[in-house]
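Practice set, problem 2.
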Amino acid sequence: MKFGIFDHIDMAGDRPLATQYDERLTFAQAADEAGFYCLHIAEHHASPLNTVPVPGIWLGALARVTKRMRLGPLVYLLPLYSPLRLAEEICILDHLSKGRLDVGVGRGVSPFELAYHKIKHDDSRDIFADAYKALNTALTSELFSYESERYNYKNVPMPLRPLQQPTPPMWYGSSNATGSAWAGDHGLHFASNGPTERAKGNIQVFREHFAKHGKAAHPKPEFEGGVVVGVGRQIVVAETEAEALRIAKPAAEHHHANLTYLLRVHASDEAAKRFQVPTRAGLEEQMADGSMIVGTPATVAEKIAEQVETMGLNYMMAYLFFGTMQLSDALRSLELFRSEVMPKFA
């Protein structure tokens, strides 16, 4: 069982964005020293949910302030990229991090964000699958040629090559059965989110399809079966239950407002609403459904153990810094997680 870090870097109210960036870099250094496996960063657009909508820039900064922890997007929204340009970016980041890059890919969960980029949500899955094939061809070719309805490359020189050969490990994050099946069919490392029962169903679908595929496309020997099977959880740890709740409640409420911002902007767009992943606003509801874990180290460890057993996990991404949370509270939560929670799963 290993633990990683997940982050949107959502807007934190009155704190200047430059301050937030500095705080997150400090937090990343602490997570690196604490022994977390990987730091995953989201990609979202036109929303206060994500203040690093160009994840490659942020990952370049992270590569220079960390030494051991792996780094990567979860996920690059492939329909929004030129496969050639993205392949070159991946190569740069893999070398900047000295081979610590893990690449998450996806199509984008938000129809609103895709629409801003002139991508129809109904077309996004087919575009994603095509872009994924083109990207992998580019990463593994000295002369890149690929032809499809959308992309046409012929004998493009690829002097930049990944440090990790043939490519960095590839991940897929999904909150639905269709994406979970695709990830299993292609042998990618996998992470889900949301309420425990829904995540459990997605993981089951992934495992069934992965078993048919037979093996990981990019094996990780440090994980059972060579493949990561994980879930993301917002987590707040404090010395007492009351203190954990004091920190978690306003941070969770602010984060949820950021999470649902575009849904409110497009409140009259009934057709698009059906694509939104349902979320629960109340802290108590999120704790009850398993998407948020709050409490003392003993409580947090107990809840994690329950989810590991229920879902069959070998990986959990701890979302320890979100919403209006102060850096000091996030660092304290991280330290308690490192010293009193992680050892129980070593």
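Problem 2, part (b): a different protein.
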Amino acid sequence: MTEASSQIRQMMQDIGARARLASRAMARSSGEQKNQALLHIAKIVRERATQIAAVNQKDIERAQKNGLDAAFIDRLTLTPKAIETMSLGLEQIVSLADPIGKITPLQKQASGIEIGQMRVPLGVIGIIYESRPNVTIDAAALCLKSGNAVILRGGSEAIDSNTMLAGIIQEGLAAAGLPKDAVQVITTTDRA
């Protein structure tokens, strides 16, 4: 194993351990706490729209320099409308009922016992996606609403945008009293 591979392995183990610890706190968090985090994130996204666009521009320029096609650049681009849509999406998720703890209708068995299913968080979710930085917000929001921690690995072309958005998400989590490690973005572009 090379030194670089060893460092990446250690980084991923650290991220995983922190996410697992955060997932326990997320599983115990109230619907109100999760909603407050999502609302904080939406507010920060709006407040920092100009900075988000500037960081996204760096990703766009790098993609153009690397000869990526116009359709790819379009998916990578965070316009003012796309940034506002991220905030609106967060607010829409807040309006959804908290899925955790819901029990399906009980079914009585021949033996007399009643059986139902209860919705519980999964724990830590890993998501790998292409270079659409808005997915960083969307995926994190859905995982948070369902009481899970998430490790995100977006396309390397959107690394600067994804890193900034992850910082915003972590800031919103902290403001709501939730662990910032509930959402982590892998910040290396190395595929190892």
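Answer key, part (b): DSSP finds seven helices and five strands in the chain. Residues 3-28 form the longest helix (26 residues).
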